[in-house]
Inverse folding.
């Protein structure tokens, strides 16, 4: 935005015509050329314009030139989770009179969408993304759009099709973007679709970037993703894995990263769950639950894991289980989460020892939904349950058809 554009912005804001601005100073034609940057002008003319508009033109020029640095600092603060600085810079940027109408307008909007995602305001972020026209973006803005869209797909809990996150994040041209944080989000996306090799690969790349930039929280998150991908074939391997988790717990405690500790506890709970050590899994999920914000999707997810471990390990009486399930169903409805509603419905039918109702709901409601959303982990788990039931009941035609469906979903 050159000086003439700033003059035009404040002229239009003041409701003046070009004639009114230039009256007694210069011709309307000259005002028009100055605003379009098509002619030379003297400092005296600009000073007279500034006086008439009630602005300090040099201050406005300096402020505009500072915008790019502020946007970069805001982006970095979001990546580093420096929340006080994130809020401070946001307020400063929003006080800029002509930011949205300048060449930095789209850059600001994309970062604002990311800001809303950070605060779990996905609807607000989605509205911003829908308002942006992809065809008019610079190379950097296009890649930033891909990155924010990828994060959105990962965080939108009413749409479990994580394939979209991988597809859009893979479009990013690192030669034009240079934000290596996207490797972390690629790792998450691959984790969600069950591709452990690619998830580990990108988590390792993200870990290197976070260490290089002294992003301690990012480094812990990247290493926790790497731990999720490791295969523990022996008890010795698993002992080493749990020790690495304990070290990360200590790091979180010393740095005050309680949110991240909750995620790590939840992940370790999965490890115990997969080894059928349900009592230890429940303990991890319970502690992780205490570190989640009540009423949040994170809390609902951990409540689901906790309830699941209790059912599998027969660790709660029926009254306690019913309480957890009803709480989960109520939260699922409140948060409009179809996924968790179906999972808690499955828990309810299983707890009531109604095999027919459980299988019918799994067959007609839950598994078709998991297949529709391409939720690989749940397809694999509940597909096995249904396949085993068909074989036991000698429903071989259904078993063959299910096998075909499961193969197609991979």
């Amino acid at each position: 935005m050159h000086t003439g554009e700033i003059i035009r912005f404040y002229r239009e804001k003041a409701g003046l015509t070009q004639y009114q601005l230039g009256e007694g100073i210069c011709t309307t034609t000259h005002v028009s050329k100055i605003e379009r940057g098509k002619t030379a002008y003297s400092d005296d003319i600009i000073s007279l314009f500034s006086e008439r508009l009630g602005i300090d033109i040099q201050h406005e020029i300096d402020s505009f030139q500072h915008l790019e640095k502020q946007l970069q600092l805001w982006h970095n603060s979001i990546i580093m989770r420096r929340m006080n600085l994130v809020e401070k810079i946001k307020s400063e940027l929003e006080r800029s009179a002509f930011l949205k109408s300048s060449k930095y307008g789209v850059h600001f909007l994309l970062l604002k969408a990311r800001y809303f995602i950070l605060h779990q305001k996905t609807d607000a972020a989605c509205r911003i993304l829908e308002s942006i026209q992809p065809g008019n973006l610079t190379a950097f803005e296009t890649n930033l759009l891909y990155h924010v869209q990828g994060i959105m797909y990962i965080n939108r809990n009413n749409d479990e099709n994580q394939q979209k996150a991988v597809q859009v994040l893979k479009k990013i041209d690192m030669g034009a973007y240079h934000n290596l944080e996207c490797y972390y989000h690629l790792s998450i996306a691959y984790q969600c679709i069950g591709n452990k090799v690619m998830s580990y690969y990108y988590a390792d790349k993200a870990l290197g970037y976070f260490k290089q930039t002294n992003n301690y929280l990012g480094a812990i998150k990247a290493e926790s993703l790497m731990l999720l991908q490791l295969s523990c074939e022996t008890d010795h391997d698993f002992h080493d894995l749990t020790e690495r988790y304990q070290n990360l717990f200590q790091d979180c405690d010393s740095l005050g990263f309680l949110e991240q500790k909750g995620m790590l506890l939840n992940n370790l709970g999965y490890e115990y769950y997969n080894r059928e050590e349900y009592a230890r899994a429940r303990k991890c999920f319970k502690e992780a639950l205490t570190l989640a914000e009540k009423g949040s999707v994170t809390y609902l997810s951990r409540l689901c894991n906790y309830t699941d471990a209790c059912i599998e390990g027969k660790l709660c009486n029926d009254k306690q289980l019913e309480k957890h399930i009803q709480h989960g169903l109520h939260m699922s409805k409140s948060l409009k989460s179809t996924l968790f509603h179906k999972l808690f419905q499955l828990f309810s039918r299983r707890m009531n020892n109604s095999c027919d109702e459980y299988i019918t709901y799994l067959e007609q409601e839950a598994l078709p939904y998991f297949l529709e959303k391409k939720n690989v982990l749940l397809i694999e788990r509940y597909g096995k349950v249904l396949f085993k039931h068909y074989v036991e009941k000698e429903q071989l035609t259904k078993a063959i058809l299910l096998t075909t469906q499961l193969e197609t979903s991979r």
